[in-house]
Amino acid sequence: MKKNKTEKLSVNSVVQRNPAQEFSKIDEEIIMLNVNKGEYYALNDVASRIWEMIDTPVQVNDLLNKLIEEYEIDTQTCQQDTLRCLEDFRNKSIIIIENE
């Protein structure tokens, strides 16, 4: 899979965790340290759920469908918030994205 920051992230993109990213789950919160950037991250509950769901490659559209069902949220809000979260993950270099 490619990790190109110039690729457009869309509902057709396939995303997964960067396997080099170390993390720990403490209670319901995901904590991680990006050694390359020297940054520490603590994910909120929804971002932690997204992180859990991308342990293997998944198309963003499939991810959205699962989140809509789990959180009973409208499609537009879910798509905007999820794409924003994934862009944040991309900017931190903690996910890999492949566009179809």
Can you offer a commentary on this structure?
This protein has a single domain (14-98), classed as Outer Surface Protein A, domain 3 (Alpha-Beta Complex). Helix content is 38%, strand content 25%. The chain has three helices and six strands. A three-stranded antiparallel sheet has the order 5-1-6. The chain has a three-stranded antiparallel sheet with strand order 2-3-4. The longest helix has 17 residues, at 75-91.
Mean pLDDT: 89
Strand ordering within the main sheet: 5-1-6
**Strands, count:** 6
Number of discrete domains: 1
Largest sheet: 3 strands, antiparallel
Q: How many helical stretches?
A: 3
**Rg calc:** 13 Å
Alpha carbon gap, first and last residue: 11 Å
Low-confidence stretches: none
Structural class: alpha+beta
**Based on the structure given, which CATH architecture is correct?**
Alpha-Beta Complex
* Strand proportion: 25-35%
The outline comes out as globular
What's the CATH C level?
A: Alpha Beta
- Secondary-structure element series: EEEEHEHHE
> CATH fold name, please?
Outer Surface Protein A, domain 3
Helix content: 25-40%
